[in-house]
Amino acid sequence: MQTGPRFNISMPDKRTMRAWLTVAVLGLLMLGPVAHALPPAKDYEAVPHTGTDYPVGTVELSLQAGLEVQLHYPALEEGVKTQMAGNGPFPVVVFIPTDGEGSGDYELFSTALVARGYVVGVMDRIPQSPLPVAWVLERIYDVNEGDGSVPGALDSMTDDWAIGGHGQGAAAALKVAGQWTGTGQNLMAPSSVFGLGLHDDGVHLEDGEVSEDALGLVS
What we know:
Elements: H1 14-37, E1 56-62, E2 68-74, E3 79-80, E4 90-96, H2 107-115, E5 119-123, H3 130-144, E6 157-166, H4 168-179, E7 192-196, H5 212-217
């Protein structure tokens, strides 16, 4: 707790005492705005959160080529652009929707993951190559570097990330994992791949497009 200046007044003269009190009040008035202007410090010594009840913060992120990603993250309170929880770092999940769905159609699923301590970025379309996923991942890690999109997000995410999807998005996730080394981006390959109701009509998965390494990541 910040306190004002402390004064030892030993002079009995009342005019001198009033002068000292005036100086003390002016000193507090000068300190006040500075203290309120400082942002709250992030608590790096927070006790690890072991429950499955993180509130969900949400922010919309814009990328190149008109891409959008809805980012859900563990927060101090539920809402839009609320403060990131200080119990990280948290692993990252990039999620791809199925055909006909968008980034706003997976809030229940994202909420369940965030409650358990994951940062979830939901794409707004099915990528035709790994490159758009790399753009999404880079944008998410911009948040981790403190770009101002999410308060308190500096160093809040791990380097480990997973990719998953729903329906045709699950097939695209598997394809992306198999081709990741060809993105040319300085980003780690996904550490895990998962899918909800994987479905493919031959558009996303063809012979030779999924490596044995990618299949080994499937969870």
